[in-house]
Design brief:
heterodimer; A: alpha+beta; two-stranded antiparallel sheet; 3 helices; elongated; B: Rossmann fold; 8 strands; globular
């Protein structure tokens, strides 16, 4: 990747870009909105349980013609919590 | 007769809507079906030249709707197929000369006249598009294996879903097997994965389409061309027949794999 004019493999490039664009077209959720949502979610969850903000992933996944919001939020184990807390 | 009304649309311009309408219509006519095509691209009349009927136009679709002629007076009979007709677009009017309810009324009137009504939609997602889909029983979305065309197709599919027009079927036009094989063109599988709708046809890029359009004789009438065969296959699938997808380049197994996609 990255070689302009290089032959081969540009189809994957097209597919990857389209995957992102279509998700945003279909849902009207921009990356900025998603970031904002992530910050809000983290703030709320952190009030109740301890999480590692750096490991949290919020994405929109495609499932046929529908989209779902997928949040992967690893919890800190209780031993880690005791140490840190 | 109770015609089925099919609209072909795309969002993006230049992907082959008009060519597909002309060819599917010719293919259905060659099967002995009575077909009426409507050019719904008001102000940008084109289906007449692709079908080679531009010299026979007297009345157009707006004349019918505004009562200046009877339906049959505006139906131009094809040169080769006696059961194939064209209702041309008005050239000197704009898209506001028609409304969706006009199109529904016209469609209802045509239902008893023929087996198939095939409507050529303008590009875009505005009034002209709304007119073109208003009467449709089934919508076919046509696209090319390129990012812009696929993106626009997705947008149109979303709008059709919102209109509760039922699930549209996809025609993938201008596939170049050489480019697909070296991974420099989205494959039919890629496009289907992205758009997630039913596939009804894959049409290879074929210079004979250009030649046929120059002459005003749609390629589906040409027994040897691959694109013509692809359009004939779409016509058969519309009729409900199970037709395997074309195997244009079987060495990679790629076109063979396509046949499996048809079943979903």
């Amino acid at each position: 990747m990255g070689f302009l004019g290089r032959k081969g493999r540009s189809a994957q490039n097209a597919k990857d870009r389209l995957q992102l664009v279509l998700v945003h077209d279909r849902t009207d959720i921009t990356p900025a909105v998603l970031d904002e949502l992530k910050d809000d979610l983290l703030a709320v969850i952190s009030q109740h349980i301890e999480i590692d903000p750096g490991a949290v992933r919020i994405d929109i996944a495609r499932d046929g013609r529908s989209q779902r919001l997928v949040a992967d939020i690893p919890l800190r184990s209780s031993t880690t919590r005791r140490r840190t807390g | 007769m109770t015609a089925k009304i099919i609209t072909i649309t795309s969002g993006k311009g230049g992907v082959g809507k008009t060519t597909a309408v002309a060819n599917i219509a010719v293919a259905l006519a060659a099967e002995g079906q009575k077909v009426v095509c409507i050019d719904a691209d008001i102000g940008l009349r084109n289906l007449d030249v692709v079908m080679g009927l531009e010299n026979r136009i007297v009345y157009d679709v707006v004349d019918i709707v505004e009562g200046r002629c009877r339906l049959r007076q505006a139906m131009i009979r094809d040169k080769k197929y006696t059961e194939l007709f064209l209702i041309p677009a008005a050239q000197t009017r704009d898209k506001n000369a028609l409304s969706p309810s006009d199109m529904i009324r016209l469609g209802d009137e045509l239902r008893s006249e023929c087996d198939w009504v095939i409507i050529d939609s303008p590009a875009g997602i505005e009034r002209g598009f709304r007119n073109a889909i208003a009467a449709a029983d089934q919508v076919l979305v046509i696209t090319n294996p390129e990012v812009s065309a696929v993106r626009d197709a997705d947008r149109v599919i979303g709008l059709l879903e919102a209109e509760e027009k039922g699930s549209p079927a996809l025609i993938l036009n201008r596939i170049n097997p050489t480019l697909v094989k070296r991974n420099d063109m989205l494959s039919p599988e890629d496009v289907l994965d992205l758009l997630a709708i039913e596939l009804i046809g894959v049409v290879p890029e074929d210079e004979k389409v250009v030649i046929a359009t120059n002459r005003g004789t749609p390629i589906a009438a040409d027994g040897k061309s691959q694109a013509g065969q692809a359009f004939r296959n779409i016509a058969l699938r519309l009729k409900g027949e199970q037709v395997p997808f074309l195997e244009i380049d079987d060495q990679s197994g790629f076109w063979g794999r396509l046949s499996k996609l048809g079943g979903r």
